[in-house]
Specification:
The protein has 460 residues and is α/β, with parallel strands linked by helices. It is built from 16 helices and 17 strands.
């Protein structure tokens, strides 16, 4: 029997103005989302999906509060309301946002905190939790095969998985480093931010599959009001190019199958998405080996375009980019900092006049020709040319962001180099921001976040 994946097209009007202006959804769209969520859950079993505890654990994609990169709060609210109406005991909304963010602050920016207060769901900030050490087992050549899983995840989603209903609510996005970021990639929030920096390179897909081997959602609903192309973190100024108003909901019990249908909307298959291919090869897809093994309840025949996953070419002309000739992994030291560069330049009018070095295998003449300030990204580049640049240019002109992905350090360097304030990235009251930061620190957050003074002080 084929596994079922639901595809629903929403009919309510989407905003007519440019997508460079991010807007809440209309009341009609919110009501339609709730109706579709109800239909899908009812068809899949309704209240019978609840397990012995009666508790529901909901994981949105809340990496940041930037437009179009997070799960729309209207879907989050619709799912919470459904389970409140169908006998849930407690409902938990949990997340661990990406580097450079406190999860508490992201909840305020996205509206998740307001929903929790309104409906009585319990907000959980995984960056503030203690953890348990687990192993990445997919390969024996990882830089680090250890990672820390938050106690909340270990207790409720692994040890007590037979008692609790776990629902994943990813956003429909391509990803410039992983192909797509849907239900499987949504669980990359579980390793600590400090653990995600290792092997965030050509081995990223292997580690995503490793996490899936420990924990899998019982149900996945992909919010596709919009789908992002050119990666998962669209430049708002380029939203009319990078954000597609698809008005889709994709859902199913099998997260890998559901992700495969989501990827298909972008014209992508297993050959394009390593972690989904590995999930199928490693027995993590409940027997699904191809999209032919899926019973698609809905129509995806209109999606025949293969959309780009790599970054849109919109970088400042006065920032020189130097790539290693032997290696430069787009999954790590290339596309992580380039995404930040795009955003700071296009959305925050960041300044140029500096150089960024990424990868491995450099021409020494090209390195020796660098003048002024330089950001060296990734442990390969730091080990090869870091000392050479410091000796010639001085410490005050050389900035380092290590591992394969130390996004917070890359951000700190660019805030300084481009003269952009971190406060611009949190478009809410400074008092609310400060309160969130203080509470996060009081509760022992392990988030990796640049100093608020990064615009004025060199910190890396």
């Amino acid at each position: 029997m084929k596994t079922k994946v639901y595809v629903r097209h929403l009919e309510s009007e989407y905003q007519k103005e440019s997508r460079t202006k991010f807007r809440p959804l209309s009341d009609d769209m919110a009501r339609e989302i709730k109706a579709v969520v109800t239909e899908i859950f009812d068809d899949a079993g309704g209240a019978a999906l609840l397990k012995s505890s009666g508790n529901v654990y909901i994981k949105p994609n809340g990496i940041d509060g930037k437009a179009y990169c997070f799960t729309r709060p209207e879907l989050v609210q619709a799912v919470i309301e459904y389970w409140l109406e169908h006998g849930a005991n407690k409902i938990y909304l949990f997340e661990n946002s990406t580097q450079s963010n406190y999860t508490r602050l992201v909840y305020e920016l996205t509206g998740y905190a307001k929903i929790c207060r309104k409906l009585g769901a319990v907000p959980v900030y995984l960056d503030e939790d203690k953890g348990v050490i687990y192993e990445f087992k997919g390969r024996d050549d990882y830089q680090s095969n250890k990672f820390e899983l938050p106690n909340f995840v270990v207790k409720n989603l692994i040890e007590d998985k037979d008692k609790n209903l776990y629902i994943s609510l990813p956003k429909l996005k391509t990803h410039s480093m992983a192909g797509v970021t849907l239900g499987v990639k949504n669980q990359w929030a579980f390793p600590r931010q400090s653990d995600r920096g290792f092997d965030h390179n050509h081995l990223l897909g292997n580690k995503l599959a490793d996490v899936l081997s420990y924990v899998r959602p019982d149900f996945t609903i992909i919010e596709g009001i919009e789908g992002t192309i050119y990666g998962h973190y669209p430049v708002t100024a380029l939203a009319d190019k990078a954000v597609l108003p698809l008005k889709l909901i994709i859902a199913g019990k099998n997260v890998v199958a559901t992700d495969m249908v989501g990827a298909r909307v972008f014209g992508l298959g297993l050959e394009d998405v390593k972690h989904l291919r590995l999930a199928c090869e490693n027995g993590l897809s409940e027997g699904v080996k191809s999209i032919d093994d899926i019973d698609i309840d809905g129509d995806i025949s209109m999606y025949n375009t293969k959309y780009p996953t790599d970054l849109y070419d919109a970088f400042p002309s006065d920032v020189k980019l130097i790539y290693g000739k032997k290696m430069a992994c787009k999954e790590g030291c290339v596309n992580n900092p380039l995404t930040l560069l795009q955003i700071m330049y296009n959305d925050h009018h960041g300044k140029g006049g500096w150089t960024m070095v990424m990868g491995k295998g450099f021409d020494t003449e090209e390195i020796d020709a660098i003048q002024g300030k330089v950001l060296v990204v990734g442990h390969c580049a730091i080990e090869e040319v870091g000392d050479r640049l410091v000796r010639r240019l001085g410490k005050r002109n050389v900035f380092f962001s290590g591992k394969c992905n130390e996004l917070a350090k890359s951000a700190a360097a660019m805030f300084y180099l481009m003269k952009v304030s971190p406060l611009e990235f949190a478009p809410i009251s400074p008092l609310v921001s400060i309160k969130c930061v203080l509470l996060a620190k009081l509760h022992g957050t392990k988030a990796l976040v640049p100093s608020l003074l990064s615009k004025w002080i060199k910190t890396v």
